[in-house]
Design a protein that fits this description.
single chain; 263 residues; alpha/beta; Rossmann fold; 2 domains; six-stranded mixed beta sheet; three-stranded antiparallel beta sheet; 7 helices
Length: 263
C-alpha cells in the first residue's frame, strides 16, 4: 500500500513582523526520509511544526496525499529532542501511554511488545526511565512514536541531546529502525554528518527568512551507509559549503543580540 506524501506549496510564515519562512515548495515522498538542514534560525523547526499541523502557515498550502493504513492511530507523529518520558511509568507503560483508551488491553500489550522488540528494548520493559542511558531513553521515545503506526514520522533533532559517542552508536540503530518502519519521515538536524546518514532527500534552507536553497538526493539504502563512506563525506562537505556563510552570519547575529540585551 502506498504511504503518505506531504506536499508543501508556497508555504510562508511570520511571527508578527518577523518573516521566518518564505515560499517553501517541497515534497516528502512515501517511505523516504526528507532531512531539513540550514543555519540557526532559518525556520527548520517552524517548518516541521507546519508540516505536522501544530502551526498554521501564514500563507501557502500543505497537502497530505495517499493512503493511510487502517491500523494507524495517529497519521502525523512527533519525536522531539527531549525524551519526555514519565518517570513514574516503566518503559512498557510509557510506550502504552499513546495506546490507552484507543486499543483493547490485549491489543495494546501486543503492540507494545512489538515495538519494544523492534527497538531492542524487550528486556527493559519493566525498567524505570532513570535506570536507562540517554540513548536508551530516546529509543523509548521512538518506540512510543512507532506504536501508533504513523503514516509520517516527524523528528525534531532527536539525537541532539545525546553526547557525540552515544549519538554515533545510536545512529546505526536509528537508520535501521527508520528503514524497517518504512514510513514517510521528515527529520530536522543541524548535524550534517547525521543528515547524510539518514536522508534520501536533503533540503537546504537559507538564512531567515528560510527559503529552499538546494535539494540533494542520496539514492542509497540507509542500512548500507557508514560514517567513513567517501561519498557521504563529500556530500557533507558540499552541504557545509552551502550553509557556511549563512551559519556564520546567524552566529554573529546571536552574538550581537546577546551583547545588546545581555545573556
Amino acid at each position: 500500500m502506498p504511504g503518505l506524501r506531504l506536499v508543501l506549496s508556497g508555504v510562508r510564515h511570520a511571527y508578527r513582523d518577523l518573516n521566518v519562512l518564505d515560499g517553501i515548495d517541497l515534497t516528502a515522498e512515501p517511505g523516504q526520509v526528507l532531512v531539513l538542514v540550514g543555519p540557526s534560525g532559518c525556520g527548520k523547526s517552524t517548518l516541521l511544526g507546519i508540516m505536522g499541523g501544530l502551526l498554521a502557515p501564514s500563507g501557502g498550502t500543505v497537502r497530505c496525499e495517499g493512503a493511510i493504513a487502517d491500523d494507524c492511530l495517529n497519521p502525523l507523529t512527533y519525536v522531539f529532542q527531549d525524551f519526555a518520558l514519565l518517570p513514574w511509568r516503566s518503559v512498557a507503560d510509557n510506550v502504552a501511554l499513546v495506546l490507552e483508551d484507543r486499543l483493547p488491553k490485549a491489543a495494546c500489550a501486543a503492540r507494545v511488545a512489538e515495538v519494544l522488540a523492534l527497538t531492542g528494548l524487550s528486556e527493559f520493559a519493566q525498567a524505570w526511565p532513570r535506570q536507562l542511558s540517554g540513548g536508551m531513553r530516546q529509543r523509548v521515545g521512538i518506540a512510543r512514536a512507532l506504536a501508533v503506526r504513523p503514516a509520517c514520522l516527524l523528528l525534531d533533532e532527536p539525537l541532539s541531546a545525546l553526547d557525540a559517542q552515544t549519538r554515533d552508536l545510536l545512529l546505526d540503530e536509528f537508520t535501521a529502525l527508520i528503514e524497517r518502519a518504512n514510513t514517510t519521515t521528515v527529520y530536522v538536524t543541524h548535524n550534517l554528518a547525521e543528515a547524510v546518514r539518514v536522508g534520501h532527500q536533503i533540503v537546504v534552507l537559507s538564512r531567515r527568512p528560510g527559503r529552499v536553497r538546494a535539494m540533494l538526493r542520496i539514492d542509497r539504502p540507509l542500512a548500507g551507509r557508514a560514517a567513513t563512506d567517501a561519498d557521504l563525506s563529500a556530500m557533507e562537505a558540499t552541504l557545509w559549503q552551502m550553509i557556511r556563510d549563512d551559519a556564520a552570519a546567524a552566529a554573529r547575529e546571536i552574538e550581537t543580540r546577546t551583547d545588546r540585551y545581555g545573556a
